[in-house]
Amino acid sequence: MENFDFYAPTKILFGRGKSASLMGEMKPFGKRVLMVYGGGSIRKNGIYDTVKGLLAENGFEVRELSGVTPNPRIEKVREGVAAVREWGAQMILAVGGGSTVDCSKVIAAGSVYEGDPWELVKNPSLIQGALPVFVVLTMSATGSEMNPTAVITNPETKEKQGVHSSFLFPRASALDPSCLYTLPPIQTASGVADTMSHVFEEYFKATEDTYVQDKLCEGLLKTCIKWGPVALTEPENYSARANLMWAATMALNGLCACGKAGKWSCHAMAHQLGAWYDVTHGAALAVITPAWMRYILSEDTVERFADYAVNVWGFSRDQDAFTLASMGIDATEQFFMDCGLPTHLSELGVGEEHFDEMARAAVPYANLDTMAYVPLKAQDVAAIYRSCL
Amino acid sequence: MENFDFYAPTKILFGRGKSASLMGEMKPFGKRVLMVYGGGSIRKNGIYDTVKGLLAENGFEVRELSGVTPNPRIEKVREGVAAVREWGAQMILAVGGGSTVDCSKVIAAGSVYEGDPWELVKNPSLIQGALPVFVVLTMSATGSEMNPTAVITNPETKEKQGVHSSFLFPRASALDPSCLYTLPPIQTASGVADTMSHVFEEYFKATEDTYVQDKLCEGLLKTCIKWGPVALTEPENYSARANLMWAATMALNGLCACGKAGKWSCHAMAHQLGAWYDVTHGAALAVITPAWMRYILSEDTVERFADYAVNVWGFSRDQDAFTLASMGIDATEQFFMDCGLPTHLSELGVGEEHFDEMARAAVPYANLDTMAYVPLKAQDVAAIYRSCL
Fold first, then answer.
1. Which residue among B5, B177, B242 sits closest to A13, beta carbon to beta carbon?
2. pLDDT (tens digit, 9 = 90+) per residue, B141-156?
3. Which fold has domain A11-179?
4. Residue A15 has what DSSP assignment?
5. Which one of B128, B180, B210, B212 makes the best mutation probe of the A interface by having the most chain A beta carbons within 10 Å?
6. ipTM strictly over 0.85?
7. How many whole angstroms separate alpha carbon A221 and alpha carbon B299?
8. Is it the case that residue B386 has pLDDT exceeding 90?
9. Cα–Cα distance for residue pair B8/A6, rounded to 1 Å
């Protein structure tokens, strides 16, 4: 096991009606709240009215910043910073999914920074403070509600950049599984694929004796496999929503990564699909992941994949390791298909025309050639893309 | 899943040499450190010298409070509070196991409280602040290094009382698995049994849809089963010590308990053995746990025990549930025996003379008659004690 630090000071308020408890967490920080959200979905499903009602009941003054998009943009961050400064907001309340939370975090840091907030994204050591951020989570996948990370896009420079700082932890996040009842099936499925991918990226790493972490990873994967299909057929099944919601948070609050060396593989490859084509993150991961697994299967990795097949999918150990490994990979692909996710790039309207360029960009994005579980050069990445056609 | 709050803001510094990193965490809080520890073991194994050297190198001034005993006493807390006040200590550094950490936490809270610290133990709502507490962990079992709990004994009133307050979280804890290399085998084994018991107390609860938490519990139990025997035969096996150390922290940092209703059973029964006889906590739990499992096995609980047998011990599902359940319970008992732990009260010099009194005391200690997984009256507890003879 590698040395590690674990730190996750966000208070999680989990369960039905927990947005109300969030108000008590906010009160010590003042009265003036900038409420940040995305499009119209929280107006349709009633969460907007609920939160506005709670804020009014509890004596908060509220200004709103709406229109946060998927892949939140630095321009929206700047707009939020300006709103905070003009009015003197004392805290940020993010009501939404990962994009809204990410945008809110960087607004919070940008509000106490003199320069342009994009500088903070490019150089997180400049972050020396932030307004308190609170979260009402309405979509579950990115884990942003309990981690110190945000991903912000700058269309001018064509950069999509992750930023980490301990000042970016939300103070408290309300996770009410019933807020997920109205999610469209494709978003539920994408959230499941995204959660599983976050776990895969840690589970398939070269450090061998991280047993506690590996058992946690296996448990989170089994959670997705058991409860994902339930949530898809019974959108208002509370147990399914609750287990998936908590699994998504646990997948990316740092626990799965403890003591493991190396960087992620599939996110770097999927990211290029997002950058070149209008492909949703979860769908891109569902396509890339099984192809990547098949590509890196070898004498060196087969025991890991066999463990995966046995411990996650429940296949019997009395088969040779390569057979087991393939069974596990096939089961992964079939699972994504059964969830209604694409498993080939052709389903996403992606052709092979840019594979070489995308592959060359993917490698440096996450040092795939040196830091990946199985090191990948540009020609390997291009081959993985081709195998997904 | 029941509604829950999860909050664990302690920073964990895990790995070889991590005590050195702790110094950086301490620096913002001042210069004057009260170093709290137990008996002579940290002098023998070199940890005392290492920590003293680090403190000196980093410019800290140090006073020492030694002699913290197992089942730490309120008198030692008072001594620590007096030392803090007399000298103006700015923080507490606990170097030891759960007892030392627990004692340090209540010293830290008592130092900023006007009255007697026993009042804080009896009424935790009086805790409104605490000096910062830091930890160098030298024995792994109680989880105190990452939770807001302390257990303090008052010999005058014959009370052993747990106290919880969010002010009692350590700021940062250094967990270096190599600090455990010199533990006597019985302490290693007791730590494993204690960790497993903390997990059992959560795993065997009536809430049925806490799937994420149950998979975590199973993973932590499997960790103990795999690595406990390795640590006993190879005390300097880093992987074994690291996984056991992290499992002990994870077992009691609140994650296993998320979303589950009800109270613990075995700790209440084992506690009486500690109160009436000089029995170590881990040994008492090793005796009580399999007996309790057999006693509560019924049509209502058999599926849970069958899951335990399959998911933790790896028995094949193709047997009837009662057979599986018994196999799991027998395996638990055999595991404790193989670790060198007692499995009968006679091995501990405990006879049946006080069983009825002990049973009457155990029930109200944790509301066993209303809040336990399977409710237990005094006659049930006495029957469990008798079955351990």
1. B5
2. 899 999 999 999 988 8
3. Rossmann fold (3.40.50)
4. S
5. B212
6. yes
7. 30
8. yes
9. 10
